[in-house]
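Appendix C reproduces, verbatim, an entry submitted by the partner laboratory led by Prof. M.T., so that reviewers can inspect both the input and the predicted structure.
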Amino acid sequence: MANNEYNRKFKKFAIIYSGLPQKLMAGLFTTLHKPHFSTKLFSNVNEAFKWLELRQSNNRKHLNLHYNIQIKGRVHGVRYRATAQAKAHELNLTGFVRNLIDGTVYVEAEGEQENLSKFIDWCYLGSPRAKVSEVNSEEGELKNFRTFEVRK
């Protein structure tokens, strides 16, 4: 769409909805600032808020996050890393798993929030022979891994 046409449509939209709070206007502008621009008409402010919040929550569900996870207990020599890799593949996660010198297992995993939560829950169980005593996880900076691998 030509930039002038887009600006003209947005100005019309802004005039119609000039009574909306600035935060909502910014959210609607961001949402509508796409090549498939279409005017969305609302009968009232509450309807506009509901539409925007639904749109934003759906977008958050598909954002990739990064977690650093440390697993303590009897986790070396029990196929924990191989089983973690299989579980990560099942959940479409990327990253790596490695044994640390202090007897713990360290994982960096990336993916959708729901799948990361399932993976962290699984970490408490681990492989059949593992005895997990503690799992610590914290959100980290996204590194955009391509695969999930076992590292030495």
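The longest helix spans residues 45-61. Additional entries are available on request from the coordinating office.
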